[in-house]
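Hey, I was hoping to borrow your eyes for a little while. I've dropped the whole record in just underneath, so have a look:

——
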Amino acid sequence: MITIRKAVPDDALGIAIVCVYTWQTTYTGLLPDSILKKRISGLKETAERFRKSIAEKENYIVAAAEGNTIVGFCAYAASRNDDFPDSGEIIALYVLKGFQETGLGKRLFAAGVQALREQHFSSMILNCLDGNPSIGFYQHMGGKIAAQRQDEMKNSVIKENILYFQI
């Protein structure tokens, strides 16, 4: 059985592993290999950043299997995009490949939306890397491409679609 619950700081390493692994399985070919390799070598530091963020912001939801094995997570907050100042944002939504297509992504998405509603947001955004096959999932969940953005990551330009949702 998989439980959806608020994350605690002790979930940080599991969240970091899910994040690094899903970047490898989803973004290979979409991001430079150097970026993906750096995420693996920086796993310990990534876990510490997650631990600190969870303790300070309490804005992570995890999917835990067999007790406390983290197999997916969702992070949410107020929008970081100045073009959507009154919206919430799902900052991250990742599910391990072996647990995808089981409804777990929908459950985490719904939990993130509910948390944003509880913070009195009626809309939200989500950034999706251009070429990410998950864009179909987000559109199925009601997202509409509202804009695109470019960002620089380790001397590479990446493009993202900004999806907008009424929640």
Observations:
- DSSP finds five helices and seven strands in the chain.
